[in-house]
Structure formats: C-alpha cells, structure tokens
Design a protein that fits this description.
- The protein contains 2 helices and 5 strands, in the order αβββββα.
- The chain is an alpha+beta fold.
- The protein has one domain.
- The chain has a 5-stranded antiparallel beta sheet.
- The longest helix is centred in the last third of the chain and has 18 residues.
- It is globular and about 45 Å long.
Length: 114
C-alpha cells in the first residue's frame, strides 16, 4: 500500500484496502479582499501508521460554474510503521471536479492492472 490513491480512496469511503483508525479536523476562516476564505484541515491516521493530511480551502467569491474553484491538497505526513514510501507524497487539485476525476481515473487504472 504505497500509492496515495489507496489512502484517498479510504478517505472518500471507496474500496481500496486502507483502513482509517482515527481522524481529527481543524477549521478556520478569514477575510481576504472582502471575501471569506474557509479552510478545513483533516488528518487521517491509518491502521498501518500512515498519516495523510487533506486541506480544503474555499472562498465565498460568487461563481456560476458547476464546479467552482477551490484548493485541495493531500500530503503524506508519515510512511507508517514500515516507513512506506507513499507516492506521490503530495497531490494538489484546484476543484472538487478535478479531484473526483483523478480518483475515478486512477481507480479504474488500478482495477485494470489487477
């Protein structure tokens, strides 16, 4: 289980093999140029010791697009008890739609490889 995809699947409650043993969340908001920015930082602890942090930032800028811009970052904070080299160690998206596409595309490729 050295693919970030495995852990992102677990975070999104999709099959993949990784088991979340606990999680914690922090929330913040601030004003930037007259718009509110909201940040959600969730840290996921997996049963094999891997720790993944997911940060989501969204602003209140009016946007009529179906998939408004936001910033989503996954970071590997620890390789766990076996010091797994989880790859990639960082993944960034600029919308929920791009995150969903990445997850669906790579999940399908992983299933095809099995």
């Amino acid at each position: 289980m050295n693919q970030l995809l495995t852990y992102v699947c677990a975070i999104h409650q999709k099959p993949g093999g990784a088991v979340i043993s606990s999680q914690c969340a922090d929330y913040a908001s601030w004003q930037d140029q007259g718009f509110e920015v909201r940040q959600e930082v969730k840290t996921y602890y997996f049963d094999n010791g891997v720790i993944i942090r997911r940060t989501l930032e969204q602003d209140s800028f009016p946007d009529d697009l179906a998939c408004a811009e936001c910033w989503i970052t996954y970071e590997v904070l620890s390789g766990g008890t076996d010091q797994l080299h989880v790859e990639p160690s960082r993944q960034v998206f600029d919308s929920v739609c791009r995150e969903s596409f990445w997850l669906a595309y790579h999940s399908a490729r992983a299933e095809g490889a099995n």
